[in-house]
User: Fold this.
Amino acid sequence: MTVTAAPLTTVFQSGLDAPICLTWELTYACNLSCVHCLSSSGRRDPAELTTDECKRVIDEFERMQVFYVNIGGGEPTVRPDFWELVDYATAHHVGVKFSTNGLRITPEVARRLAGSNYIDVQISLDGATAEVNDAVRGRGSFEMATRAMRNLADAGFAGFKISVVMTRHNVAQLDAFKAVADSFGAQLRITRLRPSGRGADVWDELHPTASQQRVLYDWLVAHGENVLTGDSFFHLAGYGQELPGLNMCGAGRVVCLIDPVGDVYACPFAIHEEFLAGNVRAPGGFAAVWRGSDLFAGLRRPQSGGACASCSAFEACQGGCMAAKFFTGLPLDGPDPECVRGFGEAALATADFARRPSGDHSHRGRPAAARGPVPVTIGPRPDHGTVVRDTVVRDVPDRACDQSPLAGFTP
Amino acid sequence: MSTSEFDLDAAWRLHPQVSIRPERFGALLYHFGTRRLSFLKNPALLAVVSGLATHPSARAACADAGIGAAELPAYTRALATLAESQMICGRTAS
Assistant:
């Protein structure tokens, strides 16, 4: 057909004028100390962006027409100016989806959230039972998340998200998670455990086993249309059938991360100087980083398949996740550590060392699972994405902008 | 909505809750109400969609964007998809 140009995946791999969406960690402060925290959060960084600096960043998003941002942390709602910034963003046509452990989602806040078209909420939950959840997220965190979900449901907030990081201990609970989501009128979102941040310390013991990866894959094939994934599991496409979503890494191409001090990284899972593109405080702001960074320019050039290029699964899995490879000490042009063909496992046996994250903001003291939350006193959607092949329009649900914004998109 | 149900002779417009962002390949559309993202895969379709509000019919917007008779069915399908996902909606002709 004459109107079909180059496949969008090819276009996206060469980058866009602005991210489709981006993740913005507003603070490293957190009331919890989850053992797998991607950003090693806990303590606030004294140099975090001020309210005014945040507003200038939002102004840039508006100019660049970033439709919405995924706000996280840390626990973003502990910033005293959190609601002010959310209001500022929505008033400037930048939608907000924020991730929270539920700390501040009181009945009153839930009612307010339910009233806005421009705000979406994602509750983090890593176990369908308190026992499994609290082992990772800390004592009392299951109860806190459940209370928040009940408040949102009672307020009539349909279709909020429940976000689960898949681990060795909760793969068996997939059906239970779905039931929890259904019971609150929420939508389930599952993502991959990355060896990033504190996740590097627990990845060996928490990442799903090879047989669990297969269970996860089969479950996604059966339920994928109604479950969001942030496109995290494209490394599993090597099993055969492609999962719903886009088989490409969006890092620096269609997504990126801004951290609490304004540093811009290629993706939320790659907080390391190796993937640092610039800072929004520098002249030219965020736009200059997005459009002018050498790192991003490199990511937008065609990538080599390296050791994986001759593998018959390469077309499907694209070599997997850059951050997962990096933080397990594997070369970026080699197999993913969780390669379904087992090449990652073999490579790990000879990997020299695992890289450490650049910054650690963890609470000092006992590990998370051993203690409860830290007291902090600072101040339905229809899912009928139509996929029409060979037409000029692609309609993708908002799962498109999960972490990697293209899940649900069929190239 | 199937193609046959899309009314090329009616007046259409971008949904008021939709933002449109031109890109090299065409454009991105985002609907703040349904939280859906769509792609316009080429600049000509962007021209059609952008012209909807100022033309008496979708057919006129297509003609003005240089869409020939041979291409019209493909663009009609595209517009039908956009209408089905509420990215565009009908308006009273003026």
Notes: Residues 3 and 76 of chain B are 6 Å apart (CA to CA). Chain B has a mean pLDDT of 91. Chain B touches chain A at residues 17, 19, 21, 23-26, 28, 30, 32-42, 44-45, 70-71, 74-75, 77-78, 81-82, 84-85, 87 (CB under 8 Å).
